[in-house]
Amino acid sequence: MAEDLAVSTLIIDGRDVAAEGGRTILEAAREHGIDIPTLCFLDGLSAVGACRLCLVAIEGAPRLVPACTTRIAEGMVVTTSSPRLTAYRRRVVEFLFSERNHVCAVCVVNGHCDLQALATRLGLTHVEVPYRWPTVPVDASHERFLLDHNRCVLCTRCVRVCDEIEGAHTWDVRGRGIEARVITDLDTPWGHSTTCTGCGKCVQVCPTGALAHKGRAPGEMVKARDFLPYLRRMREHGT
Amino acid sequence: MTRRPRLATVWLDGCSGCHMSFLDLDERLLALLERVDLVYGPLVDSKEFPEDVDVTLVEGAVSTRDDLERIHCIRARTRLLVALGDCAVTGNVPALRNRFPVPVVLARAYVENVARQPGTTFDAEVPPLLDQVRPVHQVVPVDVHVPGCPPCADTIAWVLDEVLAGRRPDVGTRTRFGA
User: Fold this and answer.
1) Interface ipTM
2) At what angle do helices A114-121 and A83-99 cross, to 10 degrees?
3) Tell me: the pLDDT tens digits for B13-58?
4) Nearest CA to A222 among A148, A115, A112?
5) Does B15 contact A at CB distance below 8 Å?
6) What pTM does this model have?
7) Which of A105, A116, A123 minimises the CB distance to B172?
């Protein structure tokens, strides 16, 4: 739409900001060097607003909104950082740590993990909510890759990259709430999948050690994600 | 003359790595010992945790009935309790067993993987395992949390400087889980 191409002016964290109409608050903020924490968002994939890390306050709005899925509007006044927002974000990360079994010290991505980095960035020194220590499976049926539900944060990056970029849609989510799990095909072992191409994009975009290469020792797995915005741009614009 | 602060360190269910990191203070240990009285620790020859302790560093999670009794006693006798390292802060590796019932854990360790004299009958001196391993703050109030596996010596030095200056520091971004 033509009106989407018009430039909107708004205020983010007290700064006057101009951005192309139709941009999200997250895009506009990042274009101006304002970094809002994210977890489920990944440049090159669709935004789903699932993790709630990027919640921001809009003046006059009755509730906080996710920056990754909320479009800017003329005259909007946005706050991306405040003690209240930090408290919410910390609590979100605490819930993620308590919901599964995250043991950083022995994790394959120790030191290279988005969840761990978020905890550090937010100054989270301990988890106040009780740990659930759930019993969840590990799927080691794939020849090269490992799925460890203990480390999954249900961001659905794997689901989206497999559907939107690889075009295979091997991954999906079953169950609801605390019982939700990522699955391959019809909740059958990954190694038996008839749709998986073995491309490994899901492994690279996974923010934690939930998806990893087999045979790596703690701290050895480093994810490579540069391919994603590049692939997206090439497909959309051909340059 | 004002008395020197009384410092204690305790080792619950952990690998002693946090104490090794504490010893990595190296020559700073000498300066520390001029500022405090070290009244209790794994290498201090004292059976009873003393009264009237100013600062206690706790390594390890609460895993046994003995740990449970000790941490309550330590809390009652300590002004400022520091959870040192991931086992004390999160449960970490010791808490990996929480998904299994205690008899299953013991059978795996002392029967299934043992060739000679397998069995799970212990004499009364071995403290029984609790059903669940818990981080220290889920058992008693903790004043300062220092994540890390282990926290590095510089972090421990900073924490000690802060607490001995009478402050209750927030380590914030100075260390991290799994560091």
Assistant:
1) 0.92
2) 140
3) 999 999 999 999 999 999 999 999 999 999 888 889 999 999 999 9
4) A112
5) no
6) 0.94
7) A123
